[in-house]
Design goal:
Blueprint (H helix, E strand, L loop, with lengths): L3 H4 L1 H24 L3 H22 L4 H14 L11 E3 L2 E3 L3 E3 L8 H9 L4 E8 H12 L4 H10 L11 H14 L4 E7 L8 H7 L4 E6 L10 H18 L4 E5 L6 H8 L5 E4 L5 E4 L6 E4 L9 H13 L5 E4 L5 H10 L3 E4 L1 H6 L2 H16 L5 H5 L8 H12 L3 H11 L8
Parallel strand pairs: 3-4, 3-12, 4-5, 5-6, 6-7, 7-8, 8-11, 11-12
Antiparallel strand pairs: 1-2, 9-10
Helix pairs in contact: 2-8, 3-4, 6-7, 11-12, 13-15
The chain binds flavin mononucleotide.
Length: 425
Amino acid sequence: MRQSLNQRPEIRAIMCENRLRSHAFGREEHALGVPITSILTKLRFFVLRYLICITRSVSSLGHGVAISLLLACLTSRSPIMSLDLSTNFGGLVLRSPIMVAACPLTANVQNRIAMESAGVGAMVLPSLFEEQVVAWKAKHSGVVTPREQRVLDHAEGVTRNSAIPDAQTYLAMVNCASVQSSVPIIASLNGQTDGDWLDFAGELQEAGADAIEFSVHHRPLNQYDDPREIETEVADFARRIDASITVPLFLKLHREYTSVSHLARRLVSGCQGLVLFARDPEIDISLDDCSVQTSWQLSQSGFLSPMIRALMSVYGSCPSMPLVGSGGIGSSQDLIKVLLGGADAAMVCSAVYREGPDVIRKMLDGLTRFMEHNRIRTLNELQAKRPLEFSGEQDRMNMINGLQTRPEVIRARATHTHPMTPTWG
Ligand SMILES: Cc1cc2nc3c(=O)[nH]c(=O)nc-3n(C[C@H](O)[C@H](O)[C@H](O)COP(=O)(O)O)c2cc1C
């Protein structure tokens, strides 16, 4: 499968065109990408030099005072600290801890430019689905196994409305994005069956992806008898994909595993990082015809409790597993909490849909202010402040105290957070 990619004329043509275009993009990004901290540092340097000149020219002050002034300036609690927001997620060096999660926004070149200039650390392209890869494979090899034929039969029309109609277009997009971007581009696969189709990850790497994210989807769980089988299936996915690539592999997991920490430990040698968590569509039951309805909605910022709990648990029991938090992150407070909870970076999606790429800059500004206020210079220093996980006893005491809270206190809290909450009872 892999050798065929560069030989295909349509991909070669797109690759050449992109290489040419990348020079223009490279220059533009260089101009946009100068970190504000480095500008401030330079400004500060000139101000200091100017200060020394003035002080020296005032003979009555003398060198002693000039040096004192200089020292005072250097040691003062200045808001202009030189901060390092870079982080490492499973071998990918990111200039900032915000990644844009897989979604159609990253398929668009203008959006990618805007997100880069807002300071994003990496971007995940929207997923290519198993059904699309099986169709691609059938077209190129002409061989379709009975299982693949079933996948194709069910996929009729499913991907018709997709922003990326087929795997060929996806490869071209990966190539385009990776050549044009100065931040890592992560290709995303989404599927639910082990098989040859997973080797397509090698094609994505060859097209230029800096890493592969595999969004694990399971068939309805009632088909399984044993949670260990589910874990084994995930580990098999990872092993298979990992064998076809040399770039990092990240698994995007759903939250319903019996023990995410246990699974994380099994995956340490199979993948380079976990994204906690993927989201499912909302489901509802229609009262008109009693049918199940699904819809996909943007998440609200701030409902982070289950994710932070999982991050703390996985980080506590498996600290060598790189982690990214995802789901409901939309403010700098959310970002800081997720980093303190155990994540190396945070993924955002709904917030970018709602507020545009500028939300990335706002979140990074808030993180910078927090770090300056607390005299933290690097994300490693921030991570050193991670709270230890609750002990079992403390967790239980917190729960009991919470459940025993008097009604008037609960009502007061609810009115404070939601002013419209009725105060009945
Ligand atoms: C419109 C839209 C499209 C998405 N497409 C994908 C996708 O192709 N693959 C995937 O793994 N996740 C996809 N997601 C899920 C996001 O990557 C992310 O995991 C989820 O939205 C939670 O993050 P958020 O709360 O910041 O939105 C999509 C989300 C949205 C809103």
